[in-house]
Amino acid sequence: MSAFAEFLLIAVLLFLWESTLWLPLRGIALRKRWIAGRWSVLDPSALLSFRKTGLVPMFPLPPDFGLAPCQGPPLIVAPDGGMLMETDDGYWIEVVVVSWADFQEEGHCLVVAGRKTRLTSRRWLEILKRARQRGADPVDAVRLAAKLAFSPTRASRELRKWHLVSKTLRWTGLLLTVGFFVGLPMIYLYRGSLDAMLFVLWLWLVMCWISGQLWWLAARVYPGAKSALRMDALLALLVPFHAMRAMEIASVHSFGTTHPLALLVSAGDMNHPWLQRFLRKLEHVKPTEHASVAALRPLVSMALATRGKVIADFDVMPDASKDLEAVKYCPRCHGMFLGHAMKCGECDLPLRDLTDAA
Questions:
Q1: Per-residue pLDDT for 231 more than 70?
Q2: Terminal alpha carbon distance of the chain
Q3: What pLDDT does residue 126 have?
Q4: Does residue 93 come out as left (phi exceeding 0), alpha (psi in the -120 to 50 range) or beta?
Q5: Do 186 and 195 form a contact (C-beta atoms < 8 A)?
Q6: How far is CA 246 from CA 32, 107, 252, in A?
Q7: What is the pLDDT of residues 299-313, one digit of tens each?
Q8: CB neighbours of 167 closer than 8 A, spacing ≥ 6?
Q9: Do the Cβ atoms of 344 and 335 come closer than 8 Å?
Q10: Most confidently modeled of 72-76, 321-325, 335-339?
Q11: Angle at Cα 53 formed by Cα 330 and Cα 91, nearest 5°?
Q12: Is the pTM of this model over 0.70?
């Protein structure tokens, strides 16, 4: 294998590595399909995951226009005024917060009363910071951040803003990728090394333009994620593969304070399978989840009310046409069971007969 072929092979491998997002397991990435126009769900734990993070692949050819790496609020306020934190693996635990001194930031993690959870973007902390500057206590600040995360109106506004500010990044990323993997090899093979070096200089100018766009996003659009975006801008100057995926990397901050439910409701996709599963979990609660569900239900009900819906509207029977032997089902996970079963082993809930009305 020639040195040039080895260079291309290494470049492709590095590009594929940059074409992945490592998100906290409690996050959900949405991707808008080009033809159908509906949102598909990318679960970080589905393909490859570790203890705290999971892999979300991007489309091989940038940019991934419809990618929206959403994440719900890491903290919510219980009805009794207590505070619950969602851990990296998706479980809710109670944390005791006395004052703002209990809040700390450690790397990409939020530390509250000694308990830690990972964040995709620092913008969520910026919401708390602004509320604190206005004189709010921690409970009111967390309650405000949760309301914003579940607001369909805000989710729609965030999506429109992102489409507006990312227009340039869409085409510069594609231009840089095609130029690096198609234009550069062709010029090197047919025009020689001197012309290839001049073309590399032009590609670096494109990288500078992308870096400037990221710097502008940090200064004017998403100041809450200023440090992370400026670091990405510096990397885009030096690493072409990072610059190729600048749009997708910046989208993490655009949707880092938006719950996926809010984005689906704002789009009017009330029949989305993920949305229906999420709402069934709130309607049929596991014995260990009463505290977190009691805190989430008012936020979800507020979001559904914008479409004239309530949580109970999604308590429906599953389609049993593909399992003719089943006579019972779990109202939470829609698992199908035979007649002798009495309880769902996964959800620990009593089963319903398929002949009953939901």
A1: yes
A2: 65
A3: 93
A4: beta
A5: no
A6: 18, 21, 10
A7: 999 999 999 999 999
A8: none
A9: yes
A10: 72-76
A11: 45
A12: yes
| Residues shown for the chain | 358
- How far is it between the farthest Cα atoms of the chain? 77
Q: What whole-number distance in Å separates Cα of residue 148 and Cα of residue 157?
A: 11
Tens digits of residue pLDDT in 67-88: 999 988 999 999 988 999 998 8
**pLDDT confidence of 357, banded at 50, 70, 90?**
very low
63 cis-preceded (ω within 30 degrees of 0): yes
At a CB cut-off of 8 Å and minimum separation 6, what does 219 contact?
Answer: 226
C-alpha to C-alpha distance for 39 and 280, rounded to whole angstroms = 19
Check residue 36 and give its pLDDT: 66
> Which residue do the tokens 């007649």 mark?
339
CA 240 to chain centre: 24
Contact criterion met (CB below 8 Å) for 72 and 124: no
> Within 13 Å, how many C-alpha atoms sit on residue 90's CB side?
11
Confirm if 107 and 118 have CB atoms less than 8 A apart: no
pLDDT at 53 over 50: yes
Q: Residue 252 corresponds to which tokens in the numbers above?
A: 């993490």
How many H helices and E strands in the chain? Answer: 14, 14
Q: Give residue 225's region: left, alpha or beta (phi > 0; psi -120 to 50).
A: alpha
